[in-house]
Amino acid sequence: MTVPLSRDRAADAAERLRAFAQPQRLMILSALVGRELAVGVIDAETAIGQPALSQQLAELRRAGLVATRRESKQVLYRLADDRTAAIVRFVAAVFGGDAAPHDAIDAPAQPAPGGTRSAAMFAVIDR
Predict the structure, then answer these.
(1) CA distances (Å), 117 to each of 90, 106, 109, 120, in order?
(2) Residue ranges of E strands in the chain
(3) Which residue among 12, 32, 43, 94 sits deepest, i.e. has the most Cβ atoms within 10 Å of its Cβ?
(4) Phi and psi of 69, rounded to 5°?
(5) pLDDT tens by residue, the chain, 127 residues
(6) Is 7-121 CATH 1.10.10.10?
(7) DSSP H helices in 47-114
């Protein structure tokens, strides 16, 4: 049995999901699944372009979806937490394509006897 979200939890979830609701940010997040990258590598892989990339990375930092660390003169970006990675993997699994080419998404499980499926059968969540 699923318990409905409270108003506060629904508002928090909607606010967090707003940060994902932009194509360039989704491209950046999918590039970061399972790895840490410098801005130049993110730019090369996404072809977003430096000014827009900087803006979107700033938005992702403000939303708490990416974390950074400095190594010498470079700033390296990574996904902030496992929840963010799970959401990006879920979006890639549902919408397909090349959303996360370097990080394989498990194929949906075969239906259980009787032909029923549940959402938990295809969700990939790292802990």
Answers:
(1) 16, 16, 9, 8
(2) 37-38, 66-71, 74-79
(3) 32
(4) -150, 150
(5) 788 999 999 999 899 899 999 999 999 999 999 999 999 999 999 999 999 999 999 999 999 999 999 999 999 999 999 999 999 999 999 987 554 444 444 433 333 334 433 344 344 444 4
(6) yes
(7) 50-62, 82-95
- Could you give the angle at the alpha carbon of 114 between the alpha carbons of 109 and 116, nearest 5°? 50
Count CB atoms within 10 A of the CB of residue 63: 16
CA atoms within 13 A on the CB side of 12: 6
Let me know how long the chain is: 127
User: Residue 79 corresponds to which tokens in the numbers above?
Assistant: 């996904």
Neighbours of 97 (CB within 10 A): 8
Where along the chain do its domains lie?
7-121
What is the CB-side half-sphere exposure of residue 37 using CA atoms within 13 A? 20
3-class secondary-structure state, position 69: strand
| pTM summary value | 0.72
**What sign has the CA pseudo-torsion 82, 33, 46, 80?**
positive
